[in-house]
Design goal:
The structure holds two protein chains of two kinds.
Chain A lengths: L5 H5 L32 H6 L16 E2 L30 H24 L8 H28 L6 H31 L7 H8 L1 H15 L3 H28 L7 H28 L5 H25 L14 H18 L6 H5 L1
Helix pairs in contact in A: 3-5, 3-9, 4-5, 4-6, 4-7, 4-8, 5-9, 6-7, 7-8, 7-10, 8-9, 8-10, 8-11, 9-10
Chain B lengths: L6 H5 L6 H8 L33 H24 L2 H4 L2 H13 L1 H17 L4 H30 L9 H7 L3 H9 L6 H31 L4 H28 L5 H29 L11 H18 L11 H12 L3 H11 L13 H10 L3 H14 L36 E5 L2 E5 L2 H10 L3 E2 L2 E2 L5 E2 L5 H4 L5 H8 L25 H4 L7 H7 L2 H13 L8
Helix pairs in contact in B: 3-11, 5-7, 5-8, 5-12, 6-7, 6-9, 6-10, 7-11, 10-11, 10-12, 10-13, 12-14, 12-15, 12-18, 13-14, 15-17
Classes of the chains: A mainly alpha, B mainly alpha.
């Protein structure tokens, strides 16, 4: 019997709140279309998983626009690495928009406060004069390396096969670009109190000083590859431990205090924190791919090749930077020790991932 | 001792000016000399002039500003729960959010991805900073919207449909329209996709209807969460509009680009109209219970934002740069809305297809009829009886509207270009592309597929232009399937294994809810497959009949 009346349609529900009525599905209050990594879905997973669709999962009609050669909107062929399940990866730092802005904003606040208070206390004026030149020329040059890594990862975040991979690369890019700007603005602020600083010299050194040419070549080589995963791999598993940490921790963070500089290490420490997260994310992804039951052997061979190619350049870049350790007035750190720590770092990372370091890096 | 205190003299410290900061940051890039940057997504445009960054913002100020915006959003969500928002919210409205919020996070993240394409194309470094922020903004939008949807799922009376959201997005016959929108941002010619289609048209013109009109209607339906989230999202759009305009100015500078730009403005405007007006017009006029006659109708809002704000103040000035602006397209879109009842026909179509949706659509009632007739004179004559039939057929045991022969509705063909069905029957177009037959809702959609998305445009080679691909007609995927099996395959069945997620009413009672048994015995057919299988004579007659339209039988 048809019980239809206009009044029945018009009758509003008593309340639109959860639990106001019980009927089939009334208590289905979790996203139920993916398998969480742990026992319970995390907030990060809920707002991330499956937003980028995949014909192998729910994309019934396949991607509906393609590039002229027939490549679809997203393609597994955009990296030489292979996976039996690209969706397995979850970012270790579990960043989504809210946590990302909170962390980035906290860093901006920290750096802003430190620099502002240091300037108010007249700290720039008390810096060792030689050290000021190091900041002007070498920190000024290094900011371009960070920018280059930021652009490489910005480019790479278009190509990954899942939302989880692309968003991890996107936050990586965001961190790198923020840090490149942090250094740029920090030097510009120092120049307000130290007018002798020439803010154009950093870029000049980046482009011309022989000490930086290996680094620039390594960064340009990362930007030159068309494989997005190779970019991500080379940034975080090769360049960062061998060159970036060497410069940041192995030089500026260790040496600055002895030159009367307590602000530079604080500014740079933010990037070291950023890197721990980016490293963890990359290592997790590379580990999953290396252990892939179907494609693990192929991937490990590929990663070893990337390691060899980018590792060779990064090691040459690191060695070319040696003169920088001789510049400060108060020499509290030695290049060989810093390089050894960097080599130990990359050995530790690649060892844990079961990758084979090239002979140059093993013997170094 | 001075009488007044000037604290500034004690506390202030000279900082780096905004202009200087922006200039320094724009100098971070360099021209590589050891290894050239990898080939990125190609474009047929030439960008010779370095675009300027109109916003001159740096990440140091951007992140705290965005965090503050977030704090307001999440604080408001907490306040809405404490204020018992869901007790008073209109279920008719929240149901439509199952569709809207299933779609929108994908276009948003697609926009983030597409910044990668633009950042490599634009010469100079200045605008890269703008693209960087847009990339992070879009990441914000996508995840903040996923969070809002989760929040509805946890607190609204009927979570079914929210709980399967991204799976439903991949499968539903309505969300395919949203995928056309999102994929359009990041596939094919990089400038066509990310600059013209996304920034110059979608963001500059249509986000006003999407992110401003929608929130207003949400608030009228007791939903304070959506306005909080989406007005915060919209506050980022000015940056994106600025990015788009700046790159557009660089493109305009080279007359070689004008032909392509004219093509892309046509395609982008028309397809945005087809998709956004279909979706938002339906959502805000059929998803609302508010029938205040003094509020603006969708077409009045469209006139204000699309016609006055966008067409007159943004598109028209492009003529002075030598770009041919197609005034007739704007007029045709307007006519489709006001004379051909475009979004009313979309709402009708969505309701006909309720069994293969994943949200509830209730019938419009007398109160709604009065408002529609007031705003759209003649509306009742065309749609009134339909909605009365729909109400009658909302009871389990009736034939589902999709297959009901009694009311007179004829299931439409799908437009191969915009993916919205061919609802304005007299404008129906059929054409062949590469020897295959396709159907279109309008002449411009035919042009988009056959002429614009091609390897050549008006004698000029366009090797970077994208192509339409995939199984674009949803109905073809289930051609010959029983409706019950189709719904099971879609996953639109509730946790008891038999009750449907979609329902043609808002009655939250098992006794009144449709199950698989109620819909079994109806076979889905693809209008395109049928059309292709016809003889030429049959096809000619079918097309003529289709163009003649249908008449809803008087409701008894």
């Amino acid at each position: 019997m048809n019980a239809f009346t206009q009044e029945a349609i018009a009758q509003p529900p008593r309340s639109g709140a959860a639990g106001a009525a019980q009927f089939a599905g009334w208590d289905s209050r979790k996203y139920n279309y993916y398998k969480p990594k742990g026992r319970h879905a995390t907030h990060y997973e809920d707002v991330t998983v499956d937003v980028q669709p995949d014909p192998k999962r729910y994309l019934l009609q396949d991607f509906i626009i393609s590039f002229p050669d027939g490549t679809p909107t997203y393609s597994e062929t955009w990296t030489a690495a292979k996976s039996s399940d690209w969706h397995q990866f979850r970012a270790v730092d579990e960043e989504w928009e809210r946590t990302h802005y909170q962390r980035q904003s906290t860093i901006c606040g920290m750096i802003g406060s430190v620099v502002e208070n240091a300037r108010r206390a007249g700290a720039p004026k008390r810096l060792d004069r030689t050290w000021v030149k190091v900041l002007e020329q070498y920190l000024g040059a290094y900011k371009h390396a960070e920018f280059g890594l930021g652009m490489a990862t910005m480019h790479a975040q278009r190509y990954g096969y899942t939302q989880m991979i692309n968003s991890a690369i996107l936050t990586n890019s965001s961190y790198k670009l923020r840090f490149a700007q942090d250094l740029t603005l920090y030097l510009a602020e120092l120049a307000l109190d130290l007018p002798e600083i020439n803010l154009d010299l950093g870029k000049q050194h980046w482009l011309e000083n022989p000490a930086w040419q290996g680094t620039r070549e390594a960064v340009e080589a990362i930007n030159g590859t068309s494989d997005y995963l190779e970019k991500y791999f080379a940034v975080n598993l090769v360049f960062e431990p061998l060159v970036a940490e060497l410069v940041r921790s192995g030089f500026f963070m260790q040496v600055a205090a002895a030159q009367g500089d307590f602000t530079t290490p604080t500014v740079i420490s933010a990037a070291e924190g950023d890197y721990q997260r980016n490293l963890a994310n990359t290592a997790e992804l590379v580990h999953i791919l290396s252990q892939d039951a179907e494609h693990g052997a192929h991937n490990r061979a590929l990663f070893n090749r990337w390691l060899a190619e980018h590792g060779k350049r990064a090691l040459a870049a690191a060695r070319q930077l040696q003169p920088m350790w001789s510049l400060p007035h108060h020499k509290v750190a030695q290049f060989p020790e810093a390089l050894n720590r960097a080599l130990e770092r990359i050995r530790s990372i690649t060892g844990e991932l079961g990758l084979e370091l090239p002979a140059e890096l093993k013997a170094a | 001792m001075t009488a007044g205190l000037t604290l500034n003299k004690i506390t202030s410290q000279r900082g780096v000016s905004i202009g200087e900061a922006a200039r320094r940051i724009a100098d971070l890039g360099w021209n590589p000399s050891y290894v050239q940057e990898a080939m990125t997504f190609p474009t047929d445009y030439k960008i010779g002039r370095q675009p300027k960054d109109p916003m001159k913002q740096v990440l140091r100020s951007y992140f705290p500003m965005q965090e503050e915006k977030d704090n307001r959003v999440y604080g408001a969500l907490d306040a809405a729960l404490r204020g018992d928002m869901f007790r008073n919210v209109e279920a008719r409205w929240v149901e439509w959010m199952k569709l809207f919020l299933a779609i929108i996070p994908f276009p948003e993240i697609s926009a983030a991805r597409s910044m990668s394409m633009l950042a490599r194309l634009a010469p100079g470094e200045e605008l890269r900073t703008g693209f960087t922020m847009q990339m992070i903004d879009e990441f914000r939008h996508s995840t903040i919207q996923m969070n809002l949807k989760k929040w509805y799922m946890e607190n609204y009376i009927d979570p079914a449909g929210f709980d399967i959201t991204e799976a439903a997005f991949g499968k539903c016959y309505a969300t395919t329209i949203g995928r056309q929108f999102g994929e359009g941002f990041l596939t094919g010619d990089a400038v066509t996709a990310a600059n013209v289609y996304l920034q110059v048209v979608a963001e500059t013109a249509f986000t006003n209807t999407l992110f401003v009109a929608m929130p207003s209607e949400a608030a009228r339906n007791g939903d304070y969460a959506l306005p909080t989230v989406f007005l915060s999202v919209q506050s980022d759009e000015s940056r994106h509009i600025g990015n788009g305009h700046s790159l557009l100015m660089s493109i305009l500078n080279d007359p070689d680009n004008h032909l392509l730009l004219e093509r892309d403005l046509r395609y982008a405007f028309w397809q945005n109209h087809c998709i956004i007006d279909a979706a938002v017009g339906t959502l805000i006029e059929y998803g609302t219970t508010n029938r205040d006659k003094s509020k603006e109708s969708y077409v009045e809002l469209w006139h204000r934002w699309i016609y006055e704000d966008y067409y007159r103040t943004y598109m028209l000035p492009l003529e002075k740069y030598g770009i041919k602006v197609h005034h007739d397209d704007v007029a045709a879109a307007w006519d489709r809305l006001v004379k051909k009842n475009y979004h009313h026909k979309v709402a009708q179509f969505f309701s006909v297809g309720w069994p293969v949706n994943f949200w509830r659509i209730e019938a419009q009632t007398d109160k709604d009829f009065e408002w529609f007739e007031h705003k759209y004179p003649g509306w009742y004559a065309e749609f009134g009886d339909y909605w009365r039939w729909y109400g009658k057929k909302s009871v389990p045991g009736e034939t589902p509207m999709l297959f009901d022969q009694e009311n007179g509705y004829v299931y439409p063909h799908r437009c191969w270009s915009c993916m919205v069905p061919c609802l304005i029957r007299e404008d129906f177009v059929v054409d062949e592309v590469d020897g295959k037959l396709y159907t279109y809702c309008s002449e411009l959609c035919r042009w988009t597929h056959k002429v614009a998305f091609s390897a050549e445009y008006e004698g000029r080679s366009t090797p970077a232009m994208g192509r339409f691909s995939g199984r674009r007609e949803w109905e073809e995927c289930y051609h010959g399937w029983d409706l019950a099996d189709c719904i099971k395959d879609l996953g639109f069945v509730r946790s008891d294994g038999k009750t449907l997620v979609p329902q043609p009413h808002l009655r939250f009672d098992d006794k009144e809810m449709w199950t698989l048994d109620h819909v079994r015995g109806n076979t889905i057919q693809s209008p395109l497959v049928l059309l292709r299988n016809m003889t030429p004579e049959q096809r000619e007659k079918h097309i003529a009949d289709y163009r003649a339209g249908f008449t809803i039988r008087p409701f008894q």
